[in-house]
Design goal:
By secondary structure, the protein is α/β, with parallel strands linked by helices. The chain is built from twelve helices and 15 strands. Bound molecules: cytidine-5'-triphosphate and magnesium ion.
Length: 400
């Protein structure tokens, strides 16, 4: 075996968490996405993106399994791997990883194994920023949802200006000396390394993250990772899959009247109209569109991605659902051709606001054309008795 030259870059892959929210029957990193574990996919991504010492931090008792998995993922770069046992918190696990760094390493990336599908381009951007002189750099995504401050009783206390917010991802990159000194000096437990480095007084730079670098935290996240891998070859770990033909999908939804507050339907608020009930705002039009888009892209359905275990979508309006769906499609290599949706309802009367609804829905879908039509059912059925609203959508998606 030829030995790789000693690298000056190291990637600490933290995989020592228990995965209490995923409930996958094993520590999270050892749960399968397809026939490979989360850890295997994460390490394949690291090895494809970098030439680095790779320190894998795992729960006690999993060192052997991790080494086998890691050697398989690293291929002819297996001599650059080190496996160590982590601690009770993520920060302790990072510290354990730091303890295993080779002497020549001067730049350290810390990466969550749970961000198993992170594209190589994110690694490239982080490494470039550290090389350009940043002491600390993190990949971030803009926050697209409207954010509220909520008190312990679940009441909205006030809005938060989302233009100031960003969602932090990994890999987070550091000059080794900066990260070591920061972790040695902090006495608080931070959920990421950049927070510890910022607390130690350093500027933290940002680069663009990627929707595909999402963290597998809950069951629906795992489904999303499975869907992403299933729609393409293993190359989808690095780039979204390439499709060669359009696809269509259908979605329907029904909500009954009897919700709280005012009616929200087709992305519009309808003052004076009875609200629909549901986990979110009951916007059957938006939900039918989401189902049609997900079906067209082969990404499951609304329950896969917005189930009741996603509390951030409770009470959310069409804009949040549709924007998140656009992100899912784009991560899977699709863009939206057009959407057509028909509402069956006695109330509200759509005629006067049809164009407004089309514009609101289209804006939430990044500008894709949306047609809205509405009909009554001649007094027949539940919509005819004004008990609720039904919506039927079709969507066309195109290769991105
Ligand atoms: N992690 C770690 N050591 C810990 C806790 C977390 O190495 N003591 C790692 C996880 O393995 C994961 C990353 O930090 O790759 C992000 O943590 P999180 O997503 O919270 O994973 P878990 O802690 O495993 O999940 P949960 O919080 O649901 O139990
Ligand atoms: Mg955790």
């Amino acid at each position: 075996m030829t030995l790789s030259p000693v690298p000056r870059l190291a990637v600490i892959v933290v995989a020592a968490g228990s995965g209490t929210r995923l409930k996958g029957g094993a520590p999270k990193a050892f749960v399968g996405i397809d026939d490979r574990s989360i850890l295997h996919h994460a390490l394949r991504g690291v090895v494809a993106a970098t030439t680095a010492q790779v320190v894998v931090v795992v729960p006690s008792g999993y060192e052997g399994e991790a080494l086998t998995d890691a050697r398989d993922a690293a291929g002819d770069r297996a001599d650059l791997l080190t496996v160590v046992v982590g601690g009770a918190t993520r920060q302790e696990s990072v510290a354990a990883g730091l303890g295993a760094l080779w002497a020549d390493v001067d730049t350290v990336l810390v990466h969550d194994a749970a961000r198993a599908l992170t594209p190589a381009a994110v690694f490239d951007r982080v490494i470039a920023a550290v090389d350009a002189g940043a002491a600390a750099v993190i990949p971030v995504l803009p926050v697209v949802d409207t954010i509220k401050r909520v008190d312990a009783d679940g009441r909205v206390v006030g809005p938060v200006d989302r233009s100031e917010l960003a969602a932090a991802q990994t890999p987070q990159g550091f000059r080794r000396s900066v990260l070591e000194a920061a972790l040695a000096s902090v006495d608080t437990d931070y959920t990421d390394d950049a927070a510890a480095v910022a607390a130690a007084g350093h500027d933290v730079a940002t680069v663009e993250g990627d929707a595909v670098a999402f963290k597998i935290t809950t069951g629906p996240d795992l489904d999303r990772a499975r869907a992403l891998l299933a729609t393409g070859s293993s190359a989808s770990v690095v780039r979204p899959p390439v499709h060669d033909a359009p696809r269509v999908g259908i979605g329907t939804d029904v909500h009954g009247f009897g919700g709280e507050g005012t009616l929200w339907l087709a992305g519009l608020e309808w003052p004076g109209e009875e609200a629909l009930s549901g986990h979110s705002d009951g916007d059957a039009v938006a939900h039918a569109i989401v189902d049609a888009l997900l079906a067209a892209a082969g990404l499951g359905d609304i329950g896969t991605h917005f189930g009741t275990d996603r509390p951030e979508f409770a009470g959310a309006h069409a804009e949040a659902f549709l924007a998140h769906t656009v992100g899912l499609l784009s991560a899977a290599g699709w863009r939206i051709g057009n959407v057509s949706v028909q509402v069956q309802a006695n109330r509200p009367r759509f005629a006067a606001r049809r164009l407004e609804a089309e514009r609101a829905l289209s804006a939430a879908l990044g500008g894709a054309p949306v047609s809205v039509s509405a009909t009554t059912t001649d007094g027949l059925g539940f919509t005819g008795r004004t008990e609720g609203v039904a919506a039927f959508a079709t969507a066309l998606v195109l290769p991105a």
